[in-house]
Amino acid sequence: MHLLLVEDDERLARALTRLLEEDRHLVEHAPDGRTGIELATGVEGIDCVILDIGLPDMSGLDVARRIRKAGIDVSILMLTARDTVNDRVVGLDAGADDYVVKPFAYQEVSARLRALARRAEPGPRRAEPRLGCGAIMLDEAARRVAVNGRAVDLSPREFSLLEALLRHQGQVLTRDQLLDHAWPFSVAVTPNAVDAYVHYLRGKLGEAGAQIETVRGVGYRLGDGSDG
């Protein structure tokens, strides 16, 4: 899942991010409510917001309300130290889908994320089958890719890599993140395979392949080609 963690406790945020990434989730982090709202409403493809109720600049309840008011259809898992029935009702009414009471075991967070993923209905963003950037257009439903209207034949692995880059265009994705997206977990493969397949992908995309930028020592980013 592509997750947004809104948590001001740096130590908890680091630990939770590490555990979530070990479970092969892609994690964005916001240290306060305002940043959380900006990311939730501005970043494409967020599947779930893990939202602390006690933030330094505003209540997590207000963050949830503003996300819902913006029409963002995303699951919200609330982290709270409040465990009364009334507190839970207020959180659910604010727009949360579920909650975890602090202190919590990571296994519970993981289980609740799986439950939210199972019952999530496709929202407006997830229902959109077409992804585009610059000259590149990908039709997820038809499994087709075109560059300036010209069809490009990609292997399933190349298609998955391009899809990941398009869903997070402008963001740097590490080799491990791309590996997690494009290769089944049961397949033994090294991050070097990502470099090889990005090379193949660039070749098939032609001039538009230059939109896939190498971020040295980190991974890759998809730009619109306007700088080159």
Put the structure in a nutshell.
This protein has helices spanning 10-22, 33-42, 60-69, 85-94, 106-119, 124-127, 156-167, 175-182, 192-205, and strands at 2-6, 26-30, 48-52, 75-80, 98-101, 130-133, 136-139, 144-147, 150-152, 173-174, 212-215, 219-222. By secondary structure, the chain is of the alpha/beta class. The chain has two domains: 2-125, Rossmann fold, CATH 3.40.50.2300; 129-222, Arc Repressor Mutant, subunit A, CATH 1.10.10.10.
Question: How does this structure look, described?
Answer:
The chain is α/β, with parallel strands linked by helices and 228 residues long. The chain folds into two domains: 2-125, Response regulator (Rossmann fold), CATH 3.40.50.2300; 129-222, Arc Repressor Mutant, subunit A. It has nine helices and twelve strands. The strands form three sheets. The protein has a five-stranded parallel β-sheet, sandwiched between helices. A four-stranded antiparallel β-sheet has the order 6-7-8-9, covered by helices on one side. Strand 4, helix 4 and strand 5 (98-101) form a beta-alpha-beta unit. The longest helix has 14 residues, at 106-119. The chain is elongated.
